[in-house]
Specification:
This protein is mainly beta and 265 residues long. The protein has one domain. The chain is built from three helices and 18 strands. The strands form four sheets. Strands 1, 11, 12, 13, 14 and 15 form a six-stranded antiparallel beta sheet that branches. Strands 6, 7, 8, 9, 10 and 18 form a six-stranded antiparallel beta sheet that branches. Strands 2-3-4-5 form a four-stranded antiparallel beta sheet, with no helix packed on it. Strand 6 and strand 7 form a beta hairpin. The chain starts with a helix and ends with a strand.
């Protein structure tokens, strides 16, 4: 009798162990997934200390509306006048080749550009002021190509796009007035800031300067403009301050008539 009970007891132990192993398979928990982190990582902020005199005010950030000009201008019959003062400039027609800016006072006062492809585009300059003219071509940071020319009293802006020049005018249709050298008492210089043309005014008081700038709110092709809100650039600045110097000249980004332009007497 005892010999027959041993196998049964062994069978019971095996069956019990098998059941325990099978039940153990179902009791093993699945690994818990790591939590998912969403959102940007935290950023640190630094406290700013007040700047010493002179003080400056930060620029507003514009929303540029310009578009690149079409690539390449087809050759035309116009030419640069003989005797014109010329200088290599930026690529105005987006064909990847530098072009040539020029200014001429014979037979008439003209400013223009001749592209590497053989196309020439120009516009007449006012002959009212008996003073030398100087100007250059530059690019705003929103791709628009602008020329700035002054006669010592005022500056004139034209934009180049779709293989033609367009003059910047007020919404009433008159040339936009950009004062220069305080001839009209409202502007000491003209320049560029981000996607804007700006009218600078450097005002001397008590031996130091306050510089303000008024941006031109331009339409897409630069043909229309209105004055934006004046912004203080710096106060209490000495005459040697670079911001005062820029406010008294004709410039755009780092381009001036002396380092990247042309002039004629």
């Amino acid at each position: 009798m005892s010999q027959r009970l041993v196998p049964l007891a062994l069978f019971a132990v095996i069956a019990s162990s098998t059941a325990l192993l099978l039940s153990g398979c179902f009791l093993i928990p699945s690994p818990t997934p790591s939590p998912t982190v969403t959102g940007a990582p935290p950023t640190s902020t630094e406290s700013s200390t007040p700047s010493a005199s002179p003080t400056a005010t930060e620029d507003p950030i514009p929303t540029p509306t310009g578009v690149p000009t079409a690539a390449g201008c087809s050759p035309n019959s116009a030419t640069m006048p003989a005797g014109a003062v010329h200088h290599q400039t930026i690529d105005v027609d987006a064909d990847g080749v530098a072009d040539t800016e020029w200014i001429s006072n014979s037979p008439t006062l003209l400013f223009g550009v001749t592209t590497a492809s053989g196309a020439t585009f120009s516009y007449p300059l006012s002959s009212a002021a008996p003073t030398p003219r100087e100007g250059f071509i530059a690019q705003l940071n929103d791709h628009r190509i602008v020329s700035l020319v002054d006669d010592g009293r005022a500056a004139y802006a034209h934009f180049f796009g779709n293989c033609k020049w367009v003059e910047t005018k007020t919404f009433s249709g008159t040339p936009y007035p950009l004062d220069f050298n305080d001839f009209a008492g409202v502007g000491s210089g003209v320049g560029c800031s981000l996607g804007y043309l700006v009218q600078f005014q450097a005002t001397l008081s008590g031996g130091t300067y306050t510089v303000t700038k008024t941006p031109l709110n331009l339409n897409t092709d630069g043909s229309k403009a209105s004055a934006g809100a004046p912004v203080t650039v710096v106060t209490g600045a000495p005459a040697a301050d670079s911001r005062v110097k820029v406010a008294k000249e004709l410039s755009c980004q780092a381009v001036t008539a002396s380092n990247g332009g042309v002039s004629v007497g």
